[in-house]
Records
---
Amino acid sequence: MPRYTASPLAEHSLALITGLQTPEGAYPASPSFSAYAGYCWFRDGAFIADGVSAAGEAASAERFFDWCAGVLRARADHIRWIVAETAAGRPPTGSRMLPARFTFDGRDGTDEWWDFQLDGYGTWLWALVEHGRRHGTDLSPWRDAVELTVDYLVASWQRPCYDWWEEHSEHVHVSTLACVAAGLGAAADAGLLDQAREADTRAAADGIRSLVVAEGVQDGHLLKWLGSTAVDGSLAAALAPLGFVEPGSGLGAATIDLLERHLTVDGGMHRYLGDTFFGGGQWPLLSCFLGLAQLAAGDRDRAAELYEWAASTATAELALPEQVDRHLIAPRMKQEWVDRWGPVATPLLWSHAMLLRLGAALDARPALLVTELVQEGPAR
Ligand code: BGC
């Protein structure tokens, strides 16, 4: 009997996500939060699709991939223009690049947003290929959209852009690079690309790795952006589920260690030191990413603790928030955000999806029971 994926909270999470998925296949980031209502992000959506795919809802994930493909196909000429201009030495300004989020019917938003973000385009590729592996799905219906994405990323990955938190567009962010490299590597391995494109894709993924080793690592751990000295909670994803860095390697271990020591209080993880958004609370989705990294590195007990902490943030109605204020970095900043945007986004679908994803990973790697050890004897 699965312990984590069969819990009332997990069942509610799956029903919430699939129930809110729009007829077009988009996943609303949060149905009620003023600043997010009406929009689907490539980043949130790709991790949500990965979560529901791992929890067995293959059809929902595929409807999301169809939505992504529709968004990309509708912009095929624009993407080719970006690629051609970049090749000609005239990279378009950030406002002409693809946005981070779209309306459910696939249009660009009309309100101001910190839109130029590359990570989601890598993450959707990665999630699609993971899904294909997990369920044995033929990915050829998405081939043209994969090609467009690969061309866009191969041309653009070196550019500074906004990060996962839609901040610091002047930097090249290591977790953004991890998403892009994971997506490019997955697309190349999936056998969907012609030979020349596959070679360019692998070269870009290798280039990203070399750059991160040269400029995105200090004292043996990953950094928030190239040349920075700080870390960021999103780096946990570079280890797992993205596998950009081997979780059991020295680099993986040192990164986990720093994320635990600098950003985690109890099982709750902050985004980064200095965060002031809603006072800079703890994000259950980040605790789940760290849990995935810990599990992949072999620490199942810590992964289970991080899961329990994330689950403990659910409201009485089983809604998981974007963040909780149990331990605020900048308590005096909270009210300013409440006045601006209303209470913290709740439910946040990405939080629910990460709980599903970590739950599925924990269920797939059950702890050995003492009775099993006695019956089977020690491992050979
Ligand atoms: C976060 C993004 C997220 C968006 C929608 C923002 O506050 O910084 O990472 O994609 O909310 O959930």
---
Amino acid sequence: MLRGKFITFEGGEGAGKTTQIKRLAQWLTAQGRQVTTTREPGGSAGAEQIRSLLVNGPADRWSASTEALLHFAARRDHLEKTVIPALEAGHWVLCDRFVDSTMAYQGYGHQLGREIIEQLQTIVVADFLPDFTVIMDIDPASGLGRAGERAGGEDRYESMALEFHQRLRAGFLDIAARDPERCAVIDADGAIDDIAVQIRELAAQRLSLDQT
Ligand code: TMP
């Protein structure tokens, strides 16, 4: 029995997800809720090991199919070890990326197509989906600039071609259009405080929360 809510943040490189997750976590905590923040790929000991295989090294290190399988393997461990136990304990789980990232990056970016990702999704997560998903939309040219300033290794995806990032951006917008009840698109090219308020208001509406 899952008692908490599961909220995911999605978007291309440098969209500002991490900052906004912190903001929403602070707000929910101030409301007296217990919050777990986590990320994919990663979020459990085993999944963090798989993460380092995915985010380091040359762009052509893995085929698109192998990459999708690694992301789903990491996700399965993360769900079993971190996400499901936290939700069962009544925590609200805020997760930096989830299945929509595999659809956008591997399905659209690497052009594996929707069907293969949907099949893997069915096998690995069945019908487990977020209660609410924030898709932070940014022009890849400026997002990659921001991500570059952050630096610090883990740049395998940043090193992929601009066209790859443009395809995955269009992918995220398509994912949101197909599932408007779960997803909301936010323009990530604004002031941090304004975006935080928009996300809070959307979460409150979608999840029927008291905003005080
Ligand atoms: P992060 O930089 O947001 O932590 O994510 C690491 C990279 O992994 C990022 O470039 C997006 C990529 N990614 C995928 O390609 N597919 C996935 O399923 C996930 C979760 C992330």
